[in-house]
Amino acid sequence: MMTRYVADSDNAAWREIEGEVVLMRLRDGTVFSLEETGAFIWGLLEKGPCTNEAVILRLCEEFEVDEETARADVSEFLSEMQEAGLIRAVEKSQARSEEEPPGER
């Protein structure tokens, strides 16, 4: 089973400002700034649980980047955001069906 990730809205407040996403971790007020690619990934995770593979696919489509680059970027982003407590892994029963396109419900 592939891990699915979702933005942890109980632990983060966010706002999009001119294409950039500014996140605040609620437990300590730490602020994170996400530029275009990170903001795009955050937007997908805000809409609902996605596998890293689904995020990679959408990143390749949106930014016309090769899969190897997208895979590295997504892996780094998910790792950093999970370490920061801003996203979380969810169980299959909490996640949407694999048939649904990533970022849609």
- Alpha-beta classification: alpha+beta
CATH class value: Alpha Beta
Radius of gyration: 13 Å
Based on the coordinates given, report the CATH architecture: Alpha-Beta Complex
Order of helices and strands: EEEEHEHHE
Unreliable spans: 94-105
- What does the overall shape look like? globular
Q: Please count the helical segments.
A: 3
CATH topology: Outer Surface Protein A, domain 3
Written description of the protein model:
There is one protein chain. Strand 2 (12-17) and strand 3 form a beta hairpin. Helix 2 crosses helix 3. The protein has helices spanning 36-47, 52-63, 67-83; strands at residues 4-7, 12-17, 20-25, 31-34, 50-51, 87-90. It has one domain: Outer Surface Protein A, domain 3 (Alpha-Beta Complex). A 3-stranded antiparallel beta sheet has the order 5-1-6. It has a 3-stranded antiparallel beta sheet with strand order 2-3-4. Residues 94-105 have low confidence and may be disordered. Helix content is 39%, strand content 25%.
Concise structural overview:
With 105 residues, the chain is of the alpha+beta class. The chain has one domain: Outer Surface Protein A, domain 3.
Characteristic terms for this protein:
globular; alpha+beta; 3-stranded antiparallel β-sheet; disordered C terminus; 3 helices; 25% strand; 105 residues; Outer Surface Protein A, domain 3
